[in-house]
Amino acid sequence: MKVVILCNDFPPINSIGAERPYSWYFYLKELGITPVVITKNWVSDPNSKFPFVDSNTTKESTDKGFLIRVSDASTPSILFRNIFGNKLSIFRKALTFMSKILSFPFSSFDQHRNIYKQANTYIQNNDVDLVITSGEPFILFKYGRLLKRTHKIHWIADYRDGWYLNHVFSISNNFITRFMRWYEFKFEKKYMKAVDLILTVDPQLSSRLNSLFNKKSAVVYNGFWKFYETNKVDSQSECLVFNHTGTLTIGQRVEVLLQSIVELIKSEKIDSKKIKVNFIGLDFFPAQANRVLNYHPLLKNVVSTTPRVPKNEAIEMNLNADYMLNFTDSDISAIYAKTYDYIACKKPIIVVPCDNGILSELVLNHNLGFVAKSKDDLKNLLCDILNDKLQKNKISNLEGLNFFTRKSQAIELSKIIHDF
């Protein structure tokens, strides 16, 4: 059985979006499915805000499957950027906006169209049973629909996040964001009429998409590669380290933690020298970094941020922390991808605050840590932790967690594919 997978993100890109299709490529062959991944020919520094794609298309056969890495297709905004760089940014942004609008009805304006061209050529010349398109970018769903219609094959649309249902966009008051959400939803509805199955990362998003489009949906979690071990000897330091990795959204309630610490310091219930909160990689998002760094002067020596770091460095930092942090949004519940990396490090997770949803359920049902129901609950928890009333240790009960490994999730995907 052969499956063509269309995706934008793929190693060496350092992102969750890259790891999801890569894990399928890595495991599906041993499960009786040959994956053919068609993606961008990334050669850039993963920390770059403008990742570089090589101008050549390469094809590689490995013991895992087949890889086709394509160049970016030229668009007016890309040509403008190549000529002027970061100069005249207003004009570049205007061209990017127009290209985005026109890319849905006219593929010649889409920088991802070479992925479709290579997929179309490959399917014309090979026996392919199924196409999977992984979004973002959701323009790939357009190409999934075209490939299904042209070659009469099944198509699965993989939502790593919501498109119309993207929570950040749904609450935005920005006129352009709201316009694009309305405009793109017209195309999303059109594409989903043709899809055979919607794939998502958690049950809640699956249910919402099922209701929105009346299409069958299934869940393949993001998961983690393996459990990590540390060579660190337990420190006798009295300073407790709390880590958070990746971005923060506007709605995630980090202020509940920050205000709790401020109040505990003011009331002298904790010593600011005994607690450290690290936001790993948050410097990549300046507005969010400033949000935590400038919250209160009392947190000057408590809160710190770092630039985006390679994943192995982030893991090492987490292995040397005491607790991991997950901040919830009052309007939506989700299992953030970072949660699986926390599990892999076997560090207790603190959910701030309780979302009364799937994230809190995951942590509580698998004894992964603590869920703070309120600010007062969190303050009591922090005091107990800092006063050694709660034992500092790693997650010891790993029973059931192997289901969330990427290999186990690839097995779940293989079952879905074989059902076709």
What is the element layout, followed by pairings?
Layout: E1 2-6, H1 16-27, E2 34-40, E3 58-61, E4 66-70, H2 76-84, H3 89-103, H4 113-125, E5 130-135, H5 139-151, E6 154-159, H6 167-170, H7 175-192, E7 197-200, H8 203-213, E8 217-219, E9 240-245, H9 254-266, E10 275-280, H10 286-293, E11 303-305, H11 311-319, E12 323-327, H12 338-344, E13 349-352, H13 358-365, E14 369-371, H14 375-386, H15 406-419
Parallel strand pairs: 1-2, 1-5, 2-4, 5-6, 6-7, 7-8, 9-10, 9-12, 10-11, 12-13, 13-14
Antiparallel strand pairs: 3-4
Helix pairs in contact: 1-15, 2-3, 4-5, 5-7, 9-14
Concise synopsis of the structure shown:
The protein is an alpha/beta fold and 420 residues long. The chain has helices at 16-27, 76-84, 89-103, 113-125, 139-151, 167-170, 175-192, 203-213, 254-266, 286-293, 311-319, 338-344, 358-365, 375-386, 406-419, and strands at residues 2-6, 34-40, 58-61, 66-70, 130-135, 154-159, 197-200, 217-219, 240-245, 275-280, 303-305, 323-327, 349-352, 369-371.
